[in-house]
Amino acid sequence: MGRGCDAAGRSMQRQKEATVPQDAWSNKRERQYEHIRDSYKERGRSEDKAEELAARTVNKERREKGETKKSD
After folding, report:
1. Cα gap 40→66, rounded to integer Å
2. Along the 72 residues of the chain, how does pLDDT read in single tens digits?
3. Burial of 54 (0-12, 13-18, 19+ CB in 10 A)
4. What is the C-alpha separation between 39 and 7, in angstroms, rounded?
5. What are phi and psi of 70, to 5 degrees?
6. End-to-end CA distance of the chain, in Å?
7. Hey, is 59 helix, strand or coil?
8. 58, 49 in Cβ contact below 8 A?
9. What angle do CA 36, 42, 47 make, to 5 degrees?
10. Which of 16, 26, 35, 50 would give a disulfide with 45, using CB separation of 3.0 to 4.6 Å?
11. What's the pTM value of the predicted model, to 2 decimals?
12. Phi-psi category of 44—alpha, beta or left, where left has phi over 0 and alpha has psi -120 to 50?
C-alpha cells in the first residue's frame, strides 16, 4: 500500500510541475491563464484543479498556434 501511494504522489508532483506556467509564456498567454483560472475558481473548482486546467488550456492553445518547440 505504501509503495503505491509514494508512486502516485511522485506522479502527481511531476504532473503538477509540468502544468505550472512557464517563463516561455507571453504576456498574452499569462493573462489568458489568469482569466481561465479565475473562471474555473468562480465555477467552484479547487485552486489546484483550476490552475491545472488553465495551464493545460493555455499550453494547448500554444501548441495549436505553433508557439511551442517541436520535439524530435
Report:
1. 26
2. 444 445 555 445 545 555 555 678 899 999 999 999 999 999 999 999 999 999 999 999 999 999 988 766
3. buried
4. 32
5. -85, 135
6. 38
7. helix
8. no
9. 70
10. 50
11. 0.66
12. left
C-alpha span between 46 and 71 (Å, rounded): 32
Return the C-alpha cell found at 34.
Answer: 489568469
Amino acid of residue 25: W
8 Å CB contact between 40 and 49: yes
Three cell numbers, residue 12: 502527481
Helix%, strand%, coil% for the chain, nearest 5 = 70, 0, 30
C-alpha cell at 41: 475558481
Q: Which three cell numbers stand for residue 40?
A: 474555473
State the cell numbers at 27: 504576456
